[in-house]
Amino acid sequence: MVTLALRELCGVRSGDKGDISDLSLFADDDAAYEVIRAEVTAERVAAHFGDLVAGTVTRYEVPNVWALKFVLTDALGGGGPRSLRADNLGKTLGGALLRLEIEVPASIAAASVRNGRRAPLDRSG
Asked: Alpha-carbon distance 24 to 109, whole Å?
């Protein structure tokens, strides 16, 4: 097992509406998805964000596209117009989630097209 940040295994899409942040992790293959599904729970995401998220964290599994969707309530200091956190809205939280570290089998880490690489990724092979 090796410890990797999520950014080494998946990408993220994020958004916000009002005081709710919506974060979706997208794995590159089935093996990475299964590791992420086992390791990245709603409780772990809530702990990762700590006091930044005052409400609940709900996880939805979307296996047909190797994704996990997290909905974070009371997460944006009241939302864009009300928040004193000028840059801590949805997209920033998505980037922060990619810094969460998880335990991954060495074989899956070695096979990841993202591990140790930066954009643009070669997905042709």
From this structure: 20
The answer to whether 102 touches 36, Cβ cutoff 8 Å, is: yes
State the average pLDDT over residues 13-37.
91
pLDDT value at 1 more than 90: yes
Give me the mean pLDDT over the 27-48 stretch.
96
As its CATH architecture, domain 2-111 has 2-Layer Sandwich (3.30)
Q: Where are the beta strands (DSSP E) in the chain?
A: 2-5, 10-17, 20-27, 57-62, 67-72, 101-104
- Two structure tokens written together for 123: 């997905």
Q: What does the domain layout of the chain look like in residue ranges?
A: 2-111
- Which residues, 6+ apart, have CB-to-CB distance to 49 below 8 Å? 57, 72, 75, 93, 96, 97
- Is the pLDDT reported for residue 33 higher than 80? yes
